[in-house]
Design brief:
Blueprint: H1 18-27, E1 31-33, H2 43-50, E2 56-59, E3 69-71, H3 77-84, H4 91-100, E4 106-108, E5 116-118, H5 123-126, E6 140-141, E7 144-149, E8 156-160, E9 163-167, E10 170-173, H6 179-189, E11 194-200, H7 204-209, H8 220-228, E12 233-236, E13 243-245, E14 250-256, E15 262-264, E16 267-268, E17 274-275, E18 278-290, E19 296-297, H9 304-325, E20 329-334, E21 343-348, H10 355-366, E22 372-377, H11 385-395, H12 398-401, E23 402-409, E24 421-428, H13 453-456, H14 461-473
Parallel strand pairs: 1-2, 3-19, 4-12, 21-22, 22-24
Antiparallel strand pairs: 2-3, 5-18, 6-9, 7-8, 7-11, 9-10, 10-18, 11-14, 12-13, 14-18, 15-18, 16-17, 20-21, 23-24
Helix pairs in contact: 4-8, 4-9, 9-10
Bound molecules: manganese (II) ion.
Manganese (II) ion binds next to strand 8.
């Protein structure tokens, strides 16, 4: 990790908006296109899940709807870096630099996002909203930035919430105890609703910035601007005072009603379980605006796209937290098997015995979601589950290197906890320091990294094989 601030990215290295990012993927052969008329109910998500590790998918005319849907904007962590125009090693430093040095947005008066304005709202007629996991209560907007204004100061907050379509102009919304809920409580106590917008189809940097672990009254769109190296252009909504990204494909305008709660859920969530049905807040929709020919972005609940969007900002925050006390921490990963929240791997340049256990304890303090920590040496590729397991297999002894803490605070969404009370597990999988140059030295084939298989192997192996066998027979 670099310690000096990174310069902001060159504007021409990052795509302009969602469409430009899709064009990048298409040019690389990483955008699949589904046949027309795939059903918005279950079928679209089923196809998207099948390519969640390899390709984005565009669905033209889903259930006959005019507006196409796209899913899987990220199928690999490296794509997040690509969308920001940085190398993968610079992803976390770039995110930290943007969070530290945000770039205020600028207001514009005309916007692509408002080329078409519907004030008579019928959500399912106007938007192709899919149903995702099998037991979801129905169609959900899952990739919408929910933007709200502090009712007193006007400072905006940006976050993603699951949004259940409850009626033609009604949305049930889950507000966890964070910033949107804080603004809503302020409005509700004054007897008002909270003006909001749900913004669908934005630049990937806006999605990523919305997941930043920021303080209340830090506007995540300023972090998005810093990530891109240019201020985000924002436009005032047609029916309220919320400002939304002008480049968005679709905007749903409305307000969270005071004193109203209606059933919402179940909904398939990131831990690969369903969040339950309960009485939750309700958005009354006042308008839908969109581009003339918009694209609707959806995130399948629990898919890799869902996981990685949460992972990168959390990794950045945990890396910063650990480096403050342990400067020899090099990198961190929240693993996919650990739902990109619960299992952390830390790579260190080990300088003394015992420090891995201190780092494990430090990581538990970095975020209550962290349940398991594996600390490895700098020769281990922490993007590879095989490499992490190898380090545990050959450098860890349970009676010597295990850390176990009972009865700590964990994630309420982890169903194995007792109402969020969780055990913590740490593995010191670093090799002991030694003067013996062969102790714990990994085997390696000389020249392996430099092999060019397109040069080393023939183009037509079957013909070559037949020739070789024929020669051996003579
Ligand atoms: Mn916030």
């Amino acid at each position: 990790m670099r310690t000096e601030p990174l310069s902001r990215p060159a504007q021409d290295k990052t795509p302009a908006d969602l469409r430009a990012w899709l064009a990048v993927l298409a040019a690389r052969g990483e955008l699949a296109v589904a046949r027309e008329n795939v059903s918005l109910i279950d079928e679209l998500s089923a196809i998207a899940k099948c390519t969640e590790r390899s390709k984005a998918v565009l669905f033209p005319r889903p259930s006959g709807h005019d507006i196409p849907v796209v899913a899987n904007l990220f199928t690999q962590r490296s794509w997040v870096a690509d969308a920001l125009g940085v190398g993968e090693d610079d992803l976390l430093p770039r995110f930290l630099a943007a969070a530290r040095d945000p770039l205020p947005w600028v207001e514009v008066t005309t916007a692509a996002a408002q080329e078409v304005v519907h004030t008579k709202v019928d959500l399912l007629a106007q938007l192709p909203v899919p149903k995702h996991n099998e037991l979801d209560s129905g169609p959900y907007i899952t990739a919408g930035l929910l933007i709200a204004r502090n009712p007193v100061t006007g400072v905006q907050n940006v976050s993603i919430h699951r949004c259940q379509i409850s009626g033609p102009d009604r949305i049930g919304v889950l507000l966890l105890p964070r910033h949107t809920l804080a603004y809503y409580r302020m409005a509700e106590q004054a007897g008002d609703g909270l003006e909001v917008a749900i913004v669908i189809g934005v630049h990937p940097a806006c999605l990523l910035a919305s997941q930043a672990i920021a303080a209340l009254d830090e506007d995540e769109m300023e972090i998005a601007g810093a990530l891109l190296g240019r201020p985000i252009e924002m436009v005032k909504c047609k029916t309220n005072a919320v400002r939304v990204p002008a480049h968005a494909e679709i905007v749903v305008e409305g307000r969270i009603l005071p004193k109203v709660r209606e059933p919402e859920g179940p909904f398939g969530e990131f831990p690969q379980y369903y969040g339950p049905r309960a009485a939750r807040e309700v958005i009354q929709v006042e308008a839908v605006t969109h581009r003339r020919h918009p694209i609707f972005h959806t995130i399948v609940g629990g898919s890799f796209e869902h996981l990685v969007l949460g992972a990168v900002p959390r990794e950045a925050t945990l890396l910063q937290h650990l480096k403050r006390s342990f400067p020899n921490v090099l990198d961190v990963r929240l693993t996919r098997g650990g739902t990109c929240r619960y299992h952390l791997v830390v790579k260190i340049d080990k300088t003394s015995e015992g420090e891995a256990k201190n780092i494990i304890m430090g990581a538990f303090g970095g975020h209550y979601d962290v349940k398991q920590v594996v600390v490895v040496d700098k020769d281990v590729d922490i993007s590879s589950p095989d490499e992490i397991e190898w380090a545990v297999a050959t450098r860890f002894q349970a009676d010597r290197d295990l850390v176990l803490v009972s009865g700590a605070q964990g994630s309420k969404l982890d169903p194995s906890t007792d109402q969020g009370i969780s055990a913590k597990l740490g593995f010191d999988a670093t090799a002991p320091l030694s003067d013996d140059p062969l102790a714990f030295r990994r085997i390696h084939v000389k020249g392996e990294d430099a092999v060019d298989l397109s040069d080393a192997l023939v183009k037509d192996p079957n013909a070559a094989f037949a020739r070789i066998i024929a020669q051996q027979l003579t």
